[in-house]
Recover the amino acids of this structure.
């Protein structure tokens, strides 16, 4: 006697159109499910990578708000010096983010993120060509600025800085481009220019002098980030020292939580949808084969055996659909990621969908549960099937 | 750009003292307090509070809570708890003016300008920027930008809806194939007694339309029933009055316009393959 999986497989391929459509349906739903699982934690993982690439593991701010959204740190230079003197601290960089109108020759003005870095450590951007800005009239720009202003290393750019919360404008200053850099939090189309902190303060005309949005701290090799952050917090209780993980926690509880919530809602809806549809598919299929199942029971197939047949059919449809859903989900994730990355201000290097082993495991577990739950009702139908009555009805029909 | 005409918005670091009996003191300036701040600080209309821009009690000024207001929902502030106080602009300037700044020399963050012809906003902004060094003028337009955050999120949700429709269509096709297959014998008999294919197809189409319409209406009912639940959940989660799900007549019409033809087409497409077969073959089964 053929075993249950073999029998279920033959039952499926006997109706190739409906089996294929069922598998494709599960693949589409499974792909969406997979993507929602990737989305639930993807942004946090991606942001963690980005934080790590900057080389700093502690962020000191004046409030729990992250960069550019909270109050400025007053007397930032003094704070940076105090923090740099701690034994657990390797290097310190103060960062101030303003805006500026950049123009060059007849190229029209461009609003640009205008960043100043001070405090002694290397600025948190990577030089692609040229070098870091060191003098007061030197600046580095990102590739988008190079394209928009058709400027490169050695060219002069006019900068009108805007350094308080709402637009103001300082008299224009001319800077020389000394490098082209990759700024870690640049958006895909964002333009950014970086200068020394002194240059930024001069450009701001004294507005908010000796202030910084952020002090980035790198702890010494082998030192525990949490311990170093605690040391900074103890030194300056008026400031907030957050390790990268703590900063991610703030983001996760704040603006990132929308994606966690929406993915949870969509996972629930997707699974309900899948269970309902597969249940209907299997039930209709079983109802069409009631006579056949009753005949098999009469021939000696046990109740358990026909139930196993239904479970195996469900497992084949969900299993094959689930396997197909993984590459489909990966392709879909690329498309959805492209859409979401159009949100203004999202760093170019951040992705919303990041592959995680846990997402894969959860996906597989949920698919197994879906297969079992979907098979429950059809299993009940075949297990309670009255053999004699069904055969009689079949013959009379 | 924020509106600063009659009222100014200030978010302060601390509300220092609350509930000085109002009968004991002279009239004080009125303020409005956001619901979130009122809830967290236990404020009620009529109470006297002391505010300090610096967080130090020595620099505090006294105000009367005139009313508690619900902040205008702002998608850009999702996740932020809106602890805000609104003051009349002269009160705000008086309250925040540094000791070395003479009266009348205070600064405001922005001036809103309503143009006689809004179409000239860009030209006007460029003109002001050119004529007034130290001032930047920007057109206030931007709500409809193609990359505004919630426009992008709408695109994302549309993409999700599209995938759901594709999955539903595939399942629908599978189901209709099975249902049509179940009626193979009936269709065979109808063919044998002389009903033309067109007539049977019309019947199938009408049946498909009926089922799809009932299904679409049921789906809309389900969406309407869950609308309040979803809004309640997210509004509680983010402490906001933002509306997350809003089933407008346009949205409902779009759903019906997609679901009904899709359902009817799937039924006809599934039946078509069956109807092309010989009647005898169908009836013999």
């Amino acid at each position: 006697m053929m075993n249950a999986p073999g029998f279920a497989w033959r039952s499926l391929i006997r109706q190739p159109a409906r089996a294929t459509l069922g598998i494709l349906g599960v693949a589409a739903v499974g792909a969406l499910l997979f993507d929602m699982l990737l989305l639930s934690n993807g942004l946090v993982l991606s942001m963690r990578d980005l934080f790590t690439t900057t080389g700093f593991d502690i962020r000191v701010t004046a409030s729990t708000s992250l960069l550019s959204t909270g109050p400025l740190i007053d007397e930032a230079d003094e704070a940076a010096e105090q923090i740099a003197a701690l034994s657990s601290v390797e290097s310190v960089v103060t960062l101030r983010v303003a805006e500026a109108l950049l123009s060059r020759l007849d190229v029209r003005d461009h609003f640009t993120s205008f960043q100043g870095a001070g405090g002694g450590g290397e600025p948190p951007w990577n030089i692609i060509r040229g070098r870091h800005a060191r003098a007061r009239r030197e600046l580095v720009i990102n590739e988008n600025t190079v394209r928009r202003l058709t400027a490169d290393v050695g060219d002069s750019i006019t900068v009108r800085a805007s350094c308080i919360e709402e637009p103001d404008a300082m008299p224009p200053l001319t800077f020389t481009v000394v490098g082209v850099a990759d700024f870690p939090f640049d958006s895909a189309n964002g333009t950014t220019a970086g200068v020394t902190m002194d240059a930024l303060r001069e450009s701001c005309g004294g507005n908010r002098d000796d202030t910084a949005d952020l002090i980035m701290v790198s702890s010494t090799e082998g030192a525990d980030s949490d311990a170093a952050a605690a040391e900074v917090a103890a030194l300056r209780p008026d400031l907030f020292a957050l390790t990268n993980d703590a900063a991610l926690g703030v983001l996760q509880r704040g603006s990132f939580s929308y994606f966690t919530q929406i993915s949870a809602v969509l996972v629930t809806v997707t699974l309900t949808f899948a269970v309902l549809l597969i249940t209907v598919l299997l039930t209709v299929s079983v109802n069409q084969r009631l006579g056949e199942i009753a005949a098999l029971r009469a021939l000696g197939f046990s109740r358990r055996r026909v139930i196993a047949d239904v479970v195996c059919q469900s497992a084949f449809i969900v299993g094959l659909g689930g396997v197909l859903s993984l590459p489909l989900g990966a392709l879909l994730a690329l498309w959805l990621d492209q859409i979401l990355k159009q949100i203004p201000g999202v760093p170019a290097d951040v992705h919303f969908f990041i592959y995680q082993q846990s997402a894969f495991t959860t996906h597989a577990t949920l698919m197994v549960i879906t297969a079992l739950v979907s098979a429950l009702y059809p299993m009940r139908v075949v297990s309670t099937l009255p053999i004699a009555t069904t055969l009689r009805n079949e013959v009379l029909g | 750009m924020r509106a600063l005409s009659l009222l100014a918005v200030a978010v302060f670091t601390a509300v220092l003292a609350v509930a000085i009996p109002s009968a004991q003191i002279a009239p004080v300036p009125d303020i409005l307090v956001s619901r979130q701040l009122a809830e967290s600080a236990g404020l009620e209309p009529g109470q006297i509070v002391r505010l300090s821009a610096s967080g130090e009690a020595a620099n505090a000024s006294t105000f009367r809570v005139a009313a508690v207001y619900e902040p205008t929902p702002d998608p850009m502030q999702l996740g932020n708890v809106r602890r805000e106080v609104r003051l009349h602009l002269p009160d705000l300037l008086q309250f925040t003016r540094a000791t070395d700044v003479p009266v009348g020399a205070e600064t405001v963050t922005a001036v809103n300008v309503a143009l006689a012809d809004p179409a000239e906003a860009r030209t006007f902004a460029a003109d002001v920027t050119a004529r007034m060094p130290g001032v930047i003028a920007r057109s206030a337009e931007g709500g409809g930008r193609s990359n505004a955050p919630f426009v992008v999120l709408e695109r994302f949700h549309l993409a999700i809806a599209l995938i759901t429709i594709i999955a539903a269509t595939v399942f629908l096709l599978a189901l209709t194939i099975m249902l049509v297959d179940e009626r193979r014998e009936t269709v065979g008999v109808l063919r044998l007694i002389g009903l033309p294919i067109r007539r049977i197809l019309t019947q199938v189409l009408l049946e498909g339309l009926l089922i799809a319409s009932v299904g679409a209406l049921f789906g809309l009912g389900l969406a309407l029933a869950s609308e309040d639940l979803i809004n309640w959940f997210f509004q509680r989660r983010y402490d906001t009055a933002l509306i997350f799900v809003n089933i407008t007549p346009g949205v409902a019409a779009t759903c019906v316009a997609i679901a009904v033809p899709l359902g009817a087409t799937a039924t006809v497409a599934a039946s078509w393959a069956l109807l092309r077969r010989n009647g005898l073959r169908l009836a013999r089964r």
Remarks:
- DSSP finds twelve helices and twelve strands in chain A.
- The interface with chain B takes residues 17-18, 21-22, 24-25, 28-29, 31-32, 101, 162, 164-171, 253-255, 257-258, 261, 265-266, 270, 273, 277, 280-281, 284-285, 288, 332, 335-336, 339-340, 342-344 of chain A (CB under 8 Å).
- The CA atoms of residues 344 and 366 of chain A lie 34 Å apart.
